[in-house]
Amino acid sequence: MRPERVLFNIKHGLTVEDEVCISPRIFNATLNSKAPVKPVAPIRESMVKETRRIIGEMKNTGKPLKSTLREAGLEEYIKDI
Question: Residue 62's closest CA among 18, 22, 25, 21?
Fold first, then answer.
């Protein structure tokens, strides 16, 4: 859980688009092995949304859920998101 960092980013105008900056080579890479390897690119969005669900963030915006802020003792910031 990282609501403090997310709140900092929101306060300073950062968005989820600013958050992830990964080379396209990683998402389309294949390994030098005989095992079949599928590129990550086609499932990246669903992976990101599932990760956000698990850590208590809104799937599309990356903002922390109210319940996540409450659990972290950051109730005073609920009005800011």
Answer: 18
The DSSP bridge partners found for residue 64 are: 57
| SS3 state of residue 24 | helix
Q: Which residues contact 16 (CB under 8 A, 6 or more apart)?
A: 60, 61, 62
Q: What is the pLDDT of residues 21-72, one digit of tens each?
A: 566 666 665 656 666 666 666 777 787 788 888 888 888 888 889 999 899 8
Global pTM value: 0.61
Separation of alpha carbons 66 and 9, rounded Å: 16
